[in-house]
């Protein structure tokens, strides 16, 4: 009981109202864009799974507002009609707003079905070669990032 009183003192009326009014909805507004293409433009979807440096996580309607950095990997979108779309991202951000809207902004993105496995392996091979021949810290850092993206690209294509 004492713990409940402590918690209730910590919550202001405003945050308490936010907690109480947060409920479940069946859909959320989703925007997903990259420098080369807009994949979703404020469309209604059921769920989105994203790869994040803090760990992969799923986003459902009325998710807690969040800002996260995307790591190379696959964003999976569960559409309202039951279709599932998988899109590879090299990096980017995800923003989850209090109004159940979600925005994914990717540096580069491509539908998984459009990824050529041999081209992905070639990208990875070149990145690994650059890493082994890197002589400066900057070159090693850039090559390490390219290897990480290449590995995720190959994994997505398999």
UniProtKB/TrEMBL annotation:
Annotated GO CC locations: mitochondrial inner membrane; proton-transporting ATP synthase complex
Annotated ranges, domain F1F0-ATP synthase delta subunit C-terminal: 116-156
A molecular-function term among this protein's GO annotations: proton-transporting ATP synthase activity, rotational mechanism
Annotated localization: Mitochondrion inner membrane
Record SUPFAM superfamilies: Epsilon subunit of F1F0-ATP synthase C-terminal domain, Epsilon subunit of F1F0-ATP synthase N-terminal domain
Keywords linked to the UniProt accession: Acetylation, ATP synthesis, CF(1), Hydrogen ion transport, Ion transport, Membrane, Mitochondrion, Mitochondrion inner membrane, Transit peptide, Transport
Signal peptide: none
Record Gene3D superfamilies: ATP synthase delta/epsilon subunit, C-terminal domain, F0F1 ATP synthase delta/epsilon subunit, N-terminal
Alphabetized InterPro entries for the sequence: ATP_F1_dsu/esu_C_sf, ATP_synth_F1_dsu/esu, ATP_synth_F1_dsu/esu_N, ATPD_C_metazoa, ATPsynth_dsu/esu_N
Pfam families: ATP-synt_DE_N (PF02823), ATPD_C_metazoa (PF21335)
Domain ATP synthase F1 complex delta/epsilon subunit N-terminal, chain residue ranges per copy: 31-109
CDD domains: F1-ATPase_delta
Family: Belongs to the ATPase epsilon chain family.
Subunit-level organization: Component of the ATP synthase complex composed at least of ATP5F1A/subunit alpha, ATP5F1B/subunit beta, ATP5MC1/subunit c (homooctomer), MT-ATP6/subunit a, MT-ATP8/subunit 8, ATP5ME/subunit e, ATP5MF/subunit f, ATP5MG/subunit g, ATP5MK/subunit k, ATP5MJ/subunit j, ATP5F1C/subunit gamma, ATP5F1D/subunit delta, ATP5F1E/subunit epsilon, ATP5PF/subunit F6, ATP5PB/subunit b, ATP5PD/subunit d, ATP5PO/subunit OSCP.
UniProt xrefs under NCBIfam families: ATP_synt_epsi (TIGR01216)
Function: Subunit delta, of the mitochondrial membrane ATP synthase complex (F(1)F(0) ATP synthase or Complex V) that produces ATP from ADP in the presence of a proton gradient across the membrane which is generated by electron transport complexes of the respiratory chain. ATP synthase complex consist of a soluble F(1) head domain - the catalytic core - and a membrane F(1) domain - the membrane proton channel. These two domains are linked by a central stalk rotating inside the F(1) region and a stationary peripheral stalk.
PANTHER family: ATP SYNTHASE DELTA/EPSILON CHAIN, ATP SYNTHASE SUBUNIT DELTA, MITOCHONDRIAL
Protein name: ATP synthase F(1) complex subunit delta, mitochondrial
Source organism: Asbolus verrucosus
């Amino acid at each position: 009981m004492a713990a409940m009183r402590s918690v209730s003192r910590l919550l202001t009326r405003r945050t308490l109202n936010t907690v109480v009014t947060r409920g479940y909805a069946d859909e959320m507004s989703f925007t997903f864009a990259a420098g080369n293409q807009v994949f979703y433009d404020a469309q209604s979807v059921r769920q989105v799974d994203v790869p994040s440096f803090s760990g992969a996580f799923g986003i459902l309607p009325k998710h807690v507002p969040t800002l996260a950095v995307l790591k190379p990997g696959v964003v999976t979108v569960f559409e309202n009609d039951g279709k599932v779309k998988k899109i590879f991202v090299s990096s980017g951000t995800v923003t989850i707003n209090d109004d159940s809207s979600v925005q994914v902004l990717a540096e580069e993105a491509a539908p998984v079905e459009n990824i050529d496995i041999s081209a992905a392996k070639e990208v990875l091979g070149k990145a690994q070669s650059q890493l082994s021949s890197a002589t400066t810290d900057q070159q090693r850092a850039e090559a390490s990032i390219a290897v990480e993206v290449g590995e995720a690209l190959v994994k997505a294509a398999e």
